[in-house]
Amino acid sequence: MRALMPRTLVAVTMVAFVSSSILPAVAQAGIISTASTFGFDTQEARSANLAKVQAQLARAEVQKSLAAYGVTPEQVQARVAALTDREIGSLAQRIDQAPAGADGGILAVIGIVFVVLLILDYIGVIHIFTHRR
C-alpha cells in the first residue's frame, strides 16, 4: 500500500505537468493609455460620477441632513466641484456600495431584544425558553 501511494502521486503530478504545458495560454493585447496607466478617470467617467454624486446630494433626505449640520446646498456644490477625479470616483463607488435604506440597525435591535429576553428569563421574570434539569 505504501509503495502505491508515491507512484500514484508521481503519475498525477506528471499528468498535470504535461497537460499544463500542452494547453495554450490566452493573452490579450491592446494599447494602454497614459490616463489608464496612472489611474486617471476620463472626462466621461468624471461626468458620470459627478452626476451620480449630485443626484444623491439633491435628494430631500440628504438636503435635510445637511441642513441639520448647518451646511447650505451652495457650500455642498462648491465642495463637490473642488473634488479631484479620484475623489469623485471613490465617492460614486461608495454610493453604489451603500446599503439601500438602512445601515443594518435592525439586526442590532433584534440582538438587544434577544439579550433582554434572555436575561429576564434567566432571573425568572418571564419564562420563554424551556429549562431542562
Structural account:
This protein has 133 residues and is an all-alpha fold. Among the domains are: 38-97; 102-133. Helix content is 66%, strand content 0%. The protein is built from 7 helices and no strands. The protein has helices spanning 4-22, 34-37, 43-57, 60-68, 73-81, 85-97, 105-123. The protein is flat, with a radius of gyration of 30 Å. The two termini are 52 Å apart.
Brief characterization of the structure:
The chain has 133 residues and is mainly alpha-helical. It is built from seven helices and no strands. Among the domains are: 38-97; 102-133.
Helix fraction?
Answer: 55-70%
Q: Report the sheet-strand fraction.
A: under 5%
**Radius of gyration using CA atoms only:** 30 Å
Number of helices: 7
Largest sheet: none
Structural class: mainly alpha
Mean pLDDT: 79
Poorly predicted runs of 5 or more residues: none
In N-to-C order, the SSE pattern is: HHHHHHH
Distance between the termini: 52 Å
The total of beta strands comes to 0
* Global outline: flat
